[in-house]
Cell division protein FtsQ
Amino acid sequence: MKEQRVKYHNNGLLLGLMKLLILCLVIIIPAFILFVTCRLDTVIVEGSSHYTNEELQDKVITKKTDRNTILLYLRYKYGKVDSIPFVEDIDIELVNKNTVKIHVYEKVITGCIEFMGGYMYFDKDGIVVESSNEKLDEVPFITGLSFNRIILYEKLEVQKKSLFHVILNITQLIKKFGLKINTIQFNSNLDVTLYSGDIKILLGKRDTYDEQIAELKNVLPKAKGKKIILDMTDFKERQDEIIAKPLK
């Protein structure tokens, strides 16, 4: 009986070693080869306008294991990753064993306001989508207004509800026509003034600014490089002339 127990024990040990060997052959060794051969050499970035390719790579590739294409792909596919300012989502595509393509989906931002020493950025619906200490030159900066409250991921509450639609009307039109407007300024009477570099544009007070801002698409390129004031307070559609005077 003792010899039989020893025999069963040896058979069980041999069976266990065989299973371990098969596991090594089927999983561990291929995984090791994959880890060694899938070294990340090339990164292609698409869709990033806010960050340079190098800046985006530094924000995406943050761990030692990210230098492996497979592990980087799996982490962004199934793992938890840190959010990146002004970026809605990141998608990693495996091009080959040494190359990945990073698809960047940026947050759609139409304007920003200053709040407690920082900047709050909102989208076309007036939802605050980002807060940052950085002021983006390409996003219109709104001044002259006070807000009831500013909470991240919630809609802006302006001092006067009708103003909310005015702000969205202006920022959406600026984006639609691709205008380089640095600042949207409201005065105490809620008259609107736009600033594009050294060009000051008086729009006055209206419910909507469609006609004026649509015309700016034609006017601003001609005024580029000049220090002038464009008075469009009384502008009407198909108007031939716009009052312009030197900016002091």
Remarks:
- The mean pLDDT is 85.
- Residues 111-246 form a domain with the Rossmann fold fold (CATH 3.40.50).
